[in-house]
Specification:
The complex is a heterodimer of chains A (244) and B (324). With 244 residues, chain A is of the alpha+beta class. Chain A has helices at residues 2-10, 18-33, 122-125, 204-207, 226-232, and strands at 37-39, 42-50, 53-54, 60-62, 68-83, 86-95, 101-104, 108-109, 111-118, 141-142, 147-156, 166-172, 182-189, 196-202, 220-221, 239-241. In chain A, strands 4, 5, 6, 9, 10, 11, 12, 13 and 15 form a nine-stranded mixed β-sheet that branches. In chain A, strands 2, 3, 7, 14 and 16 form a five-stranded mixed β-sheet that branches. In chain A, strand 5 (68-83) and strand 6 (86-95) form a beta hairpin. Chain A is globular. Classes of the chains: A alpha+beta (244), B mainly alpha (324).
Chain lengths: 244, 324
């Protein structure tokens, strides 16, 4: 709370107490900011789970409504990682069934808040052909309605109303009220000798957190709009720090 | 090392500057343009290795498909919309009839991969280009090394399509003081300015916006702009096309449902103004006498730019296969 208050004061007009505020700001904020750096790099590991078990391709899980499903593809973009005032400008495409970690050029404090965004900034959605993780070859780009698919979950469910009983959530949209990028912040505290942060990705919360939806009602979302926004509103609840 | 030769992108006299600099991150060069042109005319980009961009965007028809409501894709499939002419693309802020594409560089991803059009995967296109001479060398000339990536492919295509400028019709020559309208054309121009120019604004002859012009829902169930925005208020709205080269781009409308310009004019003089969500500017019926219609037609023909359709710079270097 104190940190938030300090930021808030910065935007108020300077008055005769300004000096006092600045002194207080240094007195309370700086010890936290200048905390010991335990490594020059930060390695983030992602641990996807559902029903308390690791997510494996084609295993059967159940959502909060008792609907069973399997996952064949689970990919999403993360970007704008920061700890304290340090920022990693990279964009990362996380594939739950491929490499489980990303190495960030971020000095790691023992205690702090890890900030990141699920999704690709709007500028990359409207500046023409991109490369690297943003290459359309990665299958995370819409050709008919320009923009990146920020989050992709595909699989099967007996509760799906489609012909082939599939589920397909391609969540994107970069502009206006239906934008699907979400800022996430995770406070963490680490043992002294590590460069690793373990993040649990809990698929249970995909179906039910701030907004709930059933497979039977929404088996397929493949365009920006209000349904994509419903799913995006659950993004931040997917992530939590695993204690070490 | 050989460096590509930069080419200046020039705005025709009296035209506004393009709303965005489409070549800001894609330096227009002679080598990039020529590579883009070769790619545009090469069937290699499609699944059947015959259907090229040029199959549906024919240079002699101002890069539309001449006299086809829908174009032929691979496997005897048809597109769902009428292929628009390609010119003055740098002045657009969105592409396709529904405006779903926001940048020229990513436009070609649609037709290359669509199963009704060229039906190929991006992976296969790159594989074919990497193993077909002289492409690695052409990419080196344009971009400095032989690497062939999707980004380079798309940027090269955009260098060609973004350079297609049609600005030398009789209308332009009149505007530049080099020629004069005859009396019919002049009367037609006045009729145009009064009745058509709100949407088909000079000098591009489009305001680049979306409009429900009363065409109604077709058999394809095409709702137009609504598919992109999800808004029911955008239902049946389509991009206002440019009227430049209209003589060369029949049939007309987003689905090619009207075969002749005279019938298009009749469409606008007989619109049912009670149609729901009709563009408000069309609520007041356009009233034209037969003579007025003929004069308007005479003016519209002054928008034909044969120096564009016969420009060797844009035409194929060698004979190409058209499947129509």
């Amino acid at each position: 709370m104190r940190y938030k208050n300090c930021i808030g004061k910065k935007f108020q007009p300077m008055n005769k107490y300004a000096t006092l505020y600045i002194v207080l700001l240094f007195a309370f904020c700086c010890p936290v900011q200048s905390q010991e750096i335990i490594d020059k790099k930060t390695v983030i590991h992602f641990v996807p789970i559902a029903n308390g078990k690791p997510v494996q391709p084609d295993s059967i899980y159940q959502n909060a409504f008792g609907e069973t499903y399997s996952v064949s593809k689970l990919k999403y973009y993360l970007s704008n990682f920061s700890i304290g005032s340090k920022v990693d400008a990279g964009i990362y495409l996380i594939d739950a069934f491929a490499a489980d970690s990303v190495i960030l050029q971020l000095p790691l404090n023992a205690k702090g808040i890890l900030h990141f965004q699920l999704g690709v900034d709007s500028i990359y959605n409207c500046s023409g052909a991109q490369s690297g993780v943003l290459d359309p070859l990665n299958g995370m780009f819409w050709t008919w309605n320009t923009g990146y698919i920020n989050f992709k979950l595909e699989g099967y469910s007996a509760f799906s109303s489609t012909n082939i009983k599939n589920i397909e959530y391609h969540i994107g949209g970069y502009a206006g009220e239906n934008k699907t990028m979400r800022k996430i912040q995770l406070p963490y505290s680490l043992p002294k000798k590590t460069q690793d942060i373990y993040i649990q990705f809990n698929l249970d919360n995909f179906w039910k957190s701030s907004s709930a939806f059933k497979i039977a009602e929404l088996p397929v979302i493949t365009s920006p709009g209000k349904n994509a926004k419903i799913v995006a509103d659950n993004f931040s609840a997917l992530f939590s720090i695993l204690p070490q | 090392m050989h460096k590509p030769t930069p080419v200046a992108f020039e705005t025709p006299k009296g035209w506004p500057k393009p709303p965005t600099e489409i070549f800001a991150r894609n330096t227009l060069t002679q080598e990039g343009f020529l590579l883009g042109k070769k790619l545009f005319y090469d069937g290699l980009l499609s699944k059947d290795s015959i259907t090229s961009c040029a199959s549906c965007h024919q240079y002699f028809a101002a890069f539309s498909t001449f006299e086809h409501n829908f174009s032929h894709g691979i496997n005897n499939r048809f597109t769902n919309r009428n292929a628009p002419g390609l010119f003055n693309l740098a002045w657009k802020t969105s592409y396709h009839w529904d405006g779903g594409v926001n940048h020229l560089e990513v436009q070609s991803l649609g037709p290359i991969t669509d199963s009704n059009e060229m039906g190929e995967t991006l992976e296969n296109v790159l594989l074919k280009l990497r193993t077909n001479l002289p492409y690695p060398q052409l990419f080196k000339s344009a971009f400095g090394d032989t690497a062939i990536s999707s980004q380079r492919l798309l940027k090269a295509l955009a260098q060609f399509t973004g350079s297609l400028i049609s600005a030398n019709s009789k209308y332009d020559r009149v505007k530049n003081g080099k020629e004069k309208f005859n009396v019919y054309e002049q009367n037609g121009y006045e009729i145009f300015k009064t009745n058509c120019s709100i949407c088909h604004s000079e000098p591009l002859f489009t305001n680049d916006k979306f409009s429900n012009n009363g065409s109604g829902l077709n058999k394809q169930g095409d709702v137009g702009r609504k598919r992109i925005t999800g808004l029911s208020s955008d239902s049946l709205q389509f991009k206002v096309p440019s009227l430049r080269n209209i003589q060369l781009t029949p049939p007309y409308m987003h689905d090619g449902s009207i075969g002749y310009i005279t019938k298009v004019i009749n469409h606008y003089t007989t619109i049912d103004s009670s149609l729901p969500q009709l563009d408000p500017v069309l609520k007041t019926p356009i009233r034209l006498s037969d003579r007025n219609k003929a004069e308007l037609l005479a003016f519209l023909f002054t928008l034909t730019d044969t120096s564009f359709t016969k420009n060797k710079k844009y035409a194929p270097e060698e004979n190409i296969i058209f499947r129509h």
